[in-house]
Amino acid sequence: MNSSGSVGISAMKPCCRILISCTNSSFFGYPPRKFTRFLHNLSKLHSDSVQSRRIFGCSCPIDSRRSSFSGSSSNLGQCRAFWSCCNVVGIRGGSVIVNVASDFRSHSTSTVDSNVNDKNFERIYVQGGINVKPLVIERIERAEDLGIEGVSSENGLNLNIEEFKDLTEVENSRKKKEVSEIEKEAWGLLRNSVVNYCGNPVGTVAANDPADKQLLNYDQVFIRDFFPSALAFLLNGEAEIVKNFLLHTLQLQSWEKTVDCYSPGQGLMPASFKVRTVPLDGGEGAFEEVLDPDFGEAAIGRVAPVDSGLWWIILLRAYGKITGDYALQQRVDVQTGIRLILNLCLADGFDMFPTLLVTDGSCMIDRRMGIHGHPLEIQALFYSALRCSREMLTVNDSTKNLVMEVNNRLSALSFHIREYYWVDLKKINEIYRYKTEEYSTDAINKFNIYPDQIPCWLVDWISDDGGYFIGNLQPAHMDFRFFTLGNLWSIISSLGTSRQNEGILNLIEAKWDDLVAQMPLKICFPALEYDEWRIITGSDPKNTPWSYHNGGSWPTLLWQFTLACIKMRRPELARRAIDLAEKRLSVDQWPEYYDTRNGRFIGKQARLHQTWTIAGFLSSKILLNNPEMASLLFWEEDYELLETCVCALNKTRRNKCSRGPARSKVLV
Ligand code: GLC
């Protein structure tokens, strides 16, 4: 896409909406809070004077005169607000910032470069981190050409695809018909779930269960649920829906939102949105389509979707990597969107830790489950989103401080998680012998963890060569439950060291019967039972032991597992899990989740035809068959980030920096 030196609108299909776009770099010179408040006031002004509804609408025909905005640069010193019929997809970023492109993209540690449109994958080398055997893929050919289903590296050995071909041809031709039918069915269902707005695809509904009597909000487009759909479409060469989704949700970000007259921060992304059809004021029989976002103000429990903005940033980066269309992330409005999310996440608070402090249920687990504080899932997504932002943020005078903040936070966050969240046999033994009540800056047991907190199940459960990041860490409290999504994203983003990442997969393999069993994968392990269930979930009848968020099995976690396995050169583990899922998902009509300790039953209240189950399965298959594509979506260790200790104590000399001595442990 061409980036003109102003705000421009291309002749695409019409939507009526309010657009707020900033076109002068000096505007970004405002301190973040002032800038945020300014935008906030501006959006309030609009909501008061222009539109009384809190929803976006589309009804008008293309107004060709709109294109006259393009090239107009006379008033670029101000933030502009348009309320008109136009298409968000056509708004282009100003060159003021676009031209100073960040070079972090080229420093991205995904070693296969990004232009997917370049189909020439004749000879691609995917390098490993220092402690990981390099996977060398020689001469990747298209699966159809070879008549095989995929590439797997059994035993983690370097693999020549020609040798692999002979071994798998017989088995695959046997399976091929069955497999392709299931995939065909999945594609059909995925396409049926697509939601259109003004004639353009903008997302997928959460579930399309034909028998569902109580839709709740499953007919909405959830930001987090759309990720695997986006991935399936992108990997299938269908980028339009993803681009539309990114731009429409960006519009919703800057909209006014209130819960009982209180407004959360400006960068918040909605949990979900719905396309509604409403009668046009004064228009006889005329209707308009409107986008109606939910920022948690209607959600069960009024949970704030902290993860939405993080997923949005991660998807934006994936879109660029897979399509090669970097113009999208360079647009001024998109850059502003990234900055607003970052401002919200990086804002100063009372917190002592680099981890994000959130309420219960602020992510995929969006009900009370005792995950308030600093849950791993949010930290791993936060780390991933920061790494994405580091690649995507345009660097100039007005962003250099933000970029520095991002770098500092990345460095502090990875240290904190690697040092304090990691448990393996050795660490548990250390905790078992901890001294408590240590008042000093040199304390070993910094968080005053009482050894009796080590749960009985853990002592026998932890494998000899495995380990994992615990679910949460607070003063005097470690939540030892294993949360799958957070651990998988720690691998994908290299939040963990390569040894730790290896350890997580070792543990999943060793504890396969607990974490995978009959359906991949447990959302967390173990379930809360008896008094713990009563006190921690508040006696939630949906989260009974081994059901739903409380130890249920969620097939949508499969694509993230696949990505982690490919990264760690263990695709055979992913293959095992996908085979399991494939045997049941279609037969069971693609449920949202499974119940019981082994994942034997379809979940008590599980929706059928759940979109992220379907899309997660499809993405897993495609990723496994295209490891070169997968490599665009994960990160290796960034040694630059580990180099600098940003600790102010170095300068003041009042105290000594505690990171120094611990460093050797962390850099393994
Ligand atoms: C449930 C899940 C949540 C998901 C939503 C839509 O609320 O807990 O993670 O986004 O359903 O599928």
TrEMBL record:
A single GO BP: sucrose catabolic process
Catalytic reactions on record: Hydrolysis of terminal non-reducing beta-D-fructofuranoside residues in beta-D-fructofuranosides
Pfam families linked: Glyco_hydro_100
Swiss-Prot/TrEMBL keywords: Carbohydrate metabolism, Glycosidase, Hydrolase
Keyword check for ATP-binding: no
MF GO annotations: endo-alpha-N-acetylgalactosaminidase activity; sucrose alpha-glucosidase activity
InterPro entries: 6-hairpin_glycosidase_sf (IPR008928), 6hp_glycosidase-like_sf (IPR012341), Glyco_hydro_100 (IPR024746)
GO CC terms in record: mitochondrion
Annotated EC: 3.2.1.26
Family the entry assigns: Belongs to the glycosyl hydrolase 100 family.
Function: Invertase that cleaves sucrose into glucose and fructose.
PANTHER family the record matches: ALKALINE_NEUTRAL INVERTASE C, MITOCHONDRIAL, PTHR31916
Name assigned to this protein: Alkaline/neutral invertase
Organism listed in the record: Dillenia turbinata
